[in-house]
Design goal:
Rossmann fold; two-stranded parallel ribbon
Amino acid sequence: MDILLNIRVAILRFLFNYNEGLERKQEPRPPAPSFIESISSSSPQGSAALHFYTPPGFQKAKTKHPLIIDFHGGGFTAGRPSINARWIATLLASDTQPVVVGVDYGLAPGNQFPGPVQDAVAAILWLANEGAEKYHLDPSRIALTGFSAGGTLAIVAPMWMRENPDVKRTLPHLLRGIVSVYPGIDFRVPRKPAGDMLGRFLSGTWDQAYYERSPLDSPFVSPAAATDDQLKNDLPQRVGLYPVADDDLCQPCEDLREHLKRLGKDVTGDVEPRAVHGWDKYPVEEGDAARWEKRAAWFRRMARDVEDMLRV
């Protein structure tokens, strides 16, 4: 059974990489990382790679740069930081001149739960401490972003840092905020079967590789299972939630929005209409300028949310 799962995962990753290759060929080309740093982690994989995207004049800057830590999607089973490259390009255009770091966390089934969470936590803590000193980053201005599974990581990693006794180190400053894009919030309820063969293959592979091997009632898998105290005390004051309308994950995300508001959090974001899960990652067909502009406008709107979180 594990052999069959590994074959399915290999196919899934090929499809992700092939789609990304097509998307990256479109003009304007998205940026490549300026450099990559490897750090140790307590996960089964034992390490994580940090892809640094830096603004112009990074090496010569006299002031410390704010930091955005970004987590990619892929159901914890596929994907890599570069699939968010166009989103990262939008963040780099911010007036705050941030450094953006995409976290290449370990993937299931080789890096099972809580491996991706542990990699995310290791990245946050290293960047806020050694990394901030090494690369002249401002540890008092850190925001987290993520799409899909990465959006889930952006929410659960801060809770893991505060709730897990194995985490010996702490953040020197509170996080400024989180922007989570179409995240998975509640996996305790089985997802609806996809209507097409490819959708069934993708969701079935994700479920078997990661979710079926994870404690679904844990708040570190399903943030909807978190207590009021965890959500109130472990998450930063500002949380931006950006689900999409045509997605089974939308309603749990909206339920979390209302829950956080009741707890006194400053919650921003909205539901993107006429959009499916992962719609921003597909290549834009030639001549479809409206879809290109829709994606660009969406990215700019979310980036302004992050920018507001990072202002002095």
